[in-house]
Amino acid sequence: MSHIYEALQRAEAERKSGAQAVAIPEEPEHPGLAFAASMPPIAAEPTRAPAVLAPAPAEAPITVDPSFLGDVRRTPWNPSFERLPALERGGVGVEQFRSLRSRLQEFRDLRSLKTVLISSGLPQEGKSFIAVNLAINLARHKSSKVLLIDGDMRCSSLHHYLGSEFHPGLPDYLSGKASLQEVMQSPEEAKDRDPSMTAVLNNICFIPGGDGGDQAADLSASKRFEELLAAVTPHFDWIVVDSPPVLLVSDAVNLARSCDAVLLVARSGVTTFPTAQRAQQELKASNVIGFVLNAVDKPPMSGSYYYRYESKKE
Fold first, then answer.
1. What are phi and psi of 262, to 5 degrees?
2. What digits encode the pLDDT tens for the residues 124-171?
3. Do residues 198 and 227 make contact, with C-beta atoms less than 8 angstroms apart?
């Protein structure tokens, strides 16, 4: 059994024995994370019946001119650096995301892997934190071109990390209200920003989550999302998609069908073992390649895929 599952089971046992409940802040700090490269088989559980959606009308396939990246809108970005350890020059925060990137590179050597969806079982487990910092770390490696998509159209948050515009966004594109060029953005030049940070951020294009509201489920099942990924994939080295919690709404399951792989995020001391099991089971039709264990206080002994990050104290 993987160390991730052992950690979650230990936390669950402590909780049942009367351990004090862990309060979850609105935006939790992330003192550590861990990555499990594989998952053990789990027993099948009953799942809710999928919603029956009317088929979308046939549309012409999306085509993208090879030079379109030069036409991407430049907008002001004011990154929240205290929430982006992957932007630091060095340190444990950079190293742990570099280790996660290395695991993804290993998977890529075995099979096609470019589009990675990040999700979690429940809210406040750190999926958006992992998604944006992973995208930044991927962009630092050999100047890779990265597309970051906020697929959480109900409660988008990536624009808060980047300090960017959140509209127009993915729901505007999926509903046909905006073009790809209109919803995609990259940072404009900032004279007071460290040149090394500028170089990294310039390698990232961003599609914000906008406001999908009650239409988010239908939009996430739209064929236009699959066509969007097919059109932009040749122009990027990596595509990272943040999504809503998989146990609350069907959006993540819908979006995952169009992605090469899924990473699930669990929060140490908070995510229960049954929750992790159910999250993986909900995504059984997709390629779940592992769990990222977030906010790890005491990493296990060396030899497992565990890393520590000491967050800065204000």
1. -130, 135
2. 999 999 999 999 999 999 999 999 999 999 999 999 999 999 999 999
3. no
